[in-house]
Structures are given as C-alpha cells and as structure tokens.
Amino acid sequence: MIYLRSFKLSDYTNRNPNIYPDYVFKHVAGEVLLFDRITVLYGNNGSGKSTLLNVISNKLGISGAEKMTSYGHSIYAQRFLDLSSYQLGHDEQEHEIRQLPEGSRYMKSEDILYEIKKIQQSSVLREGIMYEQINKGMSKAQAAQYEATYAFKKKLENIQFSQEKYSNGETSMQFFEEYLLPGQLYLLDEPETSLSPANQIRMAEQINELARYFDSQFIIATHSPFVLGALHAKIYNLDAKPLQTAEWFELDNVQFFYRFFNKHKQLFERE
C-alpha cells in the first residue's frame, strides 16, 4: 500500500544563506519525490536527508515530528512548509486515501536509543510491573502493598538481570519487532543505529516483509551499505545535483566500502 504518493518541496529559496530549511534544499528546490512502498533518502552528512524526513512529517502532521525554527523563529520554516505540498495514494479499490493510518509516525535514531534507555531503567520497569498487577485486578492500594514485598523486589531483579544480557543492538531489534506494525506509514531516520551488519540486514528484511505483505509503507534516511543493499527500495540520491534516483551499488558510500575491501582482498583469500 502506498499511503503517501508524492511530496513537492518548496520552490522558494531565501537569498539569505542562513535561513533554515531553505539553504538545506536550495539545490533541490521545487523537486517532486515520488514514493514507492519503500523509499530511501540517501546522502552523506549534511545532505538534508534527516531534515527532509522532518519536513515531510511536519507537513503530514504525524507523530514524532519535531518543531522547526530558524533564528529561533518558526516563520521561515512555516513558509517552507506552506509552499511544500503532498499527494496521498489510493487504496486497493483505486479510491483516493483521505487520511493516513492513525499509527503512522516519524522515528529518529535518538528516539530508538531513548526507548532502549527506558527499557533498561529500573524506574520504568517498576512502573511496568505495577501497571501489570493493576491490570490483573489489584487495586492501587494492594499494588502499593505489593511493591513493598520480597516477591516484587525479586521480580524486578530478575527482569533487570535478563535485560542486562542484551546489547543495545539486540534491544533495538526488540524495539523494531514491537513497534513496526502492519498497515502504517513509517518515516525512519537511520534505523540502523546500534545494529551490527547482520542485524541491519535482519531489520531490512523485516521492513521488506511488512511493505510487501502487510500494507506498510516506509520512507527511510540511511547511508548504510548493508541497509541499502538489503532493502527492495527506490533510492533518491540527495548528493546528486539535480536530484535523481540511483541503484544502491552506484552510491558513493557503497563504492567506498567496495574499494576498501577490494584493496585488502588478498587478506580474505588466504588459504
């Protein structure tokens, strides 16, 4: 399912080189991005891929969007948003989609790290155990008494011990397995954070499956060669002028990895 069909960037660029986000997108002003089930925004640091995700999420008004300001004011950013536009897709009966799924959201790499930290904090675990007991039928007074018992303390210690066995990367995989659901639009900013190459590919395969079989759509900012190579995605190269699509193996970051390992290939070919 394609919920977001296209996004047109503002064609107005302020002459002041410091106005945000005009200066970030001056080389792609007025460009139209056409989205697939999975679309990747590729670019090196400073290319504007993360900013573009935030622009789209602000324009769509979805959860996770961060307020945009320039010189401490929102007028410039709001002008950019006002002059940008988008088109929603069509459902299976070819009817125009009127609104995005309610669970659609923009997830940044720092959001994922924050969730990992929350999972590993005892205060959050404590609240989770109390909430679980109340859901099972305890009154608040009974739950407060339970919190003072040895059984509660032991349960808390057991959960903390089990979570300490997992790395940030493993917890990240747990996060994606729990939060990426069917039938949603997701904007993901560098979701490979904390993941090993093997887990980056696992995550990409999970995204492929959700997009192909479970009616989810993804717009992803990344420069990971493993994610780029594993996703079945349309790729926009934000480093290119003018904006253009590319195959994953043509991208500079992937080519850099290829040259590096090719230079040392004799080390891998030893018997």
Automatic annotation (TrEMBL):
Coiled coil: none
Source superkingdom: Bacteria
Pfam families: AAA_21 (PF13304)
Predominant localisation class: membrane
Keyword Cell membrane appears in the UniProt entry: yes
Residue ranges occupied by any AAA+ ATPase domain in the UniProt entry: 35-261
Record key words, sorted: Cell membrane, Ion transport, Iron, Iron transport, Membrane, Transport
Membrane topology: Peripheral membrane protein
Subcellular location: Cell membrane
InterPro entries in the record: AAA+_ATPase, ATPase_AAA_core, P-loop_NTPase, Siderophore_ABC-ATPase
Protein name (record): AAA+ ATPase domain-containing protein
Organism listed in the record: Paenibacillus pseudetheri
